[in-house]
Amino acid sequence: MQSAQAGVLTLDNASGATRLLERRRQMFSVQEQLEQQKEAFRQQEGLFKKREVELGRKDLELQDNLVRFSKFLQEKDSQRLRAERKANEQIKERLEKEKAIEEMKQRLEELQFQVRCRASLLRLRVNIIFR
Predict the structure, then answer these.
(1) What distance in Å separates the CA atoms of residue 92 and residue 76, rounded to the nearest whole number?
(2) Under a CB-based contact definition with an 8 Å cutoff, are residues 48 and 56 in contact?
(3) Where are the domains of the chain?
(4) Listed residue (71, 91, 99) closest to 83, CA to CA
(5) Hey, what's the torsion of the CAs at 22, 23, 26, 30, to 10 degrees?
(6) Residues 73-118: pLDDT tens digits?
(7) Total-model pTM
């Protein structure tokens, strides 16, 4: 503490030229610190700009991925709709064919009944004729 007071006393007791030189030295010291801070800020600004560019690139990449994924989902949805339509058409065709088969079975039974009836009639006529 005495040395600080001694420095103050010495500076107070020093001549005007000495005080001016000391003030200039302090000013240069402050100026040097300011320049160092400016350089640090420039470096940080450069890093921030690089980071901003990188984030912009990643943002564009994400947007591109989003667009591609959206197209993929649309294609899959379109494929699903086509598959559902095809399945519904196949079900409709199957039901129509099953109905046609049932109608044909019924017609076959009717024809077989008619054949049996005619065969019976024919046997009766043959029996009548040959009696």
Answers:
(1) 24
(2) no
(3) 2-129
(4) 91
(5) -170
(6) 999 999 999 999 999 999 999 999 999 999 999 999 999 999 999 9
(7) 0.51
Rounded to an integer, the average pLDDT of 55-81 is 98
Pair of tokens at residue 120: 């019976």
Rounded Cα gap, residues 11 and 18, in angstroms? 8
Is residue 11 within 8 Å of 19, Cβ to Cβ? yes
User: Is the C-alpha dihedral spanning 101, 107, 112, 115 positive or negative?
Assistant: negative
Tally Cβ neighbours within 10 Å of residue 19: 13
Query: Which residue's structure tokens are 């400016």?
Result: 38
In angstroms, the Cα distances linking 38 to 34, 48, 92 are 6, 15, 79
The helix (run of H) or strand (run of E) holding residue 76 is helix 16-129
Which residue type is seen at 23?
R
d(CA 64, CA 58): 10
